[in-house]
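question for whoever is on the cluster today: can someone run the full assembly for these? two chains, 651 residues total. i dont have access anymore since they changed the login thing
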Amino acid sequence: MAEISLHGVTKTFGKTEVIHPTDVTIDDGEFVVMVGPSGCGKSTLLRMIAGLETTTSGEVRIAGKRVNEVEPKDRNIAMVFQNYALYPHMSVYDNMAYGLKIRKLAKDDIEKRVQRAAKILELGPYLQRKPRELSGGQRQRVAMGRAIVREPAAFLFDEPLSNLDAKLRVQMRLEIQKLHRELRTTSVYVTHDQVEAMTLANRMIVINAGVVEQIGAPLEVYDNPASLFVAGFIGSPSMNFMPGRRAGDGVDVGEGLVIPLPPEARAGAREQVTVGVRPEHFVAGAGGGGPVFRLHVDTVESLGADSLLHAGFNGTLLVVRIEGHSTPKAGTALDVSILPGKAYFFDTATGKRLSA
Amino acid sequence: MAMEKRVVFKSAWLPYVLLLPQLTITALFFFWPAAQAVYFSFQLQDAFGMTSQFVWFQNYVDLFKDSHYVSSFKVTAFFSVMVATCGILISLMLATMADSVVRGALAYKTFLIWPYAVAPAIAGVLWAFIFAPSIGIVTYFLKQFGIDWNWIINSEQAMLLVVIASVWKQISYNFLFFLAGLQSIPKSLIEAAAIDGAGPFRRFWTIVFPLLSPTTFFLLVMNIIYSFFDTFGVIDATTQGGPGDATKILVYKVYYDGVKAADLGGSSAQSVILMAIVITLTVIQFRYIERRVQY
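^ ran it for u. tokens below:
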């Protein structure tokens, strides 16, 4: 068990800075998810913690000790790879025992640990099989078993579920959650899937283009996105954005609609302001209390419990989530308003949230 | 399993016409001489090649009574084991190093592949010059260390020379296969082993080498076949089997007995035996490779 912290860590490949100075502290026993689009540098950060990638500057600390110069094997971490990275010529048992044998543990101790991990992960019947004789989900479990038996200070997960099909991914997500509840080992998990991030994380770190955009508990980030990027990236379907310009104490988003700025957002608001509204924060009619405006329903996606309307407003399509059965038909008009306090205001130029 | 791609020809005879050139070459340069060899191996010629008589297996019986032939067998065994082992070990080492360099990797790879373009006879001459008893550069340096180098009269040194020349020639081939094998091992496997606590040496022997074993086995067979046949040029250009019979491997003896000593029957019998050995090796190779799991 250990705390992991990054202090002003950067990484440059050639002349491009792929990780801008980053400070993060991951508490002991915490499950932190680093989430961002592919190529944002989240895997590079993880690999720097693992020691598979050198840091250009700054300091990585595990359990309070600087580890920049420490070999991966001496950092007391275990990693689960996207492609599992199982040793194909070894049985499941040997795959899990490999690291223990190298660390010269007693034979019966190895046996005990592997059997325990196999029990937790329900791999008992497969211990003598080779990885190629296992399904994707089972291979994933072996990869986790290999990490568990080591009883490391921290688990590092590098997109561990992205090679699985949708159903298995949900199942494995729950298993990882359960595992963390039982073991309470510090975990850093990298994914591009914001659903995984939302469901697994104690705290999540949203990364974009090598910059940490926001750190916080999933709902906190969801409710209070710090920037346009975070607002658009977290949440599915993603937040609607309406570009507008400042008009007195409101923002004019076109078609005569002026959305009032809350007092705390007024000071920072410059000329160009983008208004963001999540699909579920529209209500039919005047229910929201604010100004009512008209949308033109273009497409309807009925998902059962609710429906997604793709509706035109001022030349762009907004996504509106409404309750499932009273859906308007495509081609009709729909009057909506925004729930109180659920409009988000961003500086269009900097992407920063106003007032947050 | 890979999908089988089948091309269907409209014409009935076109496929056969397309196969004809290759079949002609195979028939003309392999099947016919092979059949001839089998036929001649049952014959005994007189000294001038005017008459011949059918002697059943007499040529074969004579061969195994002949101490020269048995010694050639031993020479060949030693030679091919040396060539295959040294060739594989050195090229595995080179491939591992070339795989891990970052800067100038292409240059290293190119240089290491070049020797493959050199004909065996040229390679032989090249090394014969470098190690020439009177004018060789290596001979000169060896003399500085008090080593008397003369492969023309020293049989161990003659063997060493042909082994060096043959290995040098074959390294490129092995290197290419090993490099391809190394590059097909996912990098994350090595990283996983590194995190599991294995140092570079241990990673190599517990992960990389086992995963290369199909390649290694393939190369072992290919190198043995190479040392049995393709090294003829190397030997002919350097020691010509000498001194004495010290470097007279089977294929060179076939040539020597047949062409120089005009013992057509005995030479044919030898080449039939050689053929049988290679066919056996190839069969083992295919059987093994087919059963082998591809990782």
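summary bc i know u wont read the tokens: Residues 243-347 of chain A form a domain with the OB fold (Dihydrolipoamide Acetyltransferase, E2P) fold (CATH 2.40.50.140). Chain A has two domains: 4-231, 243-347.
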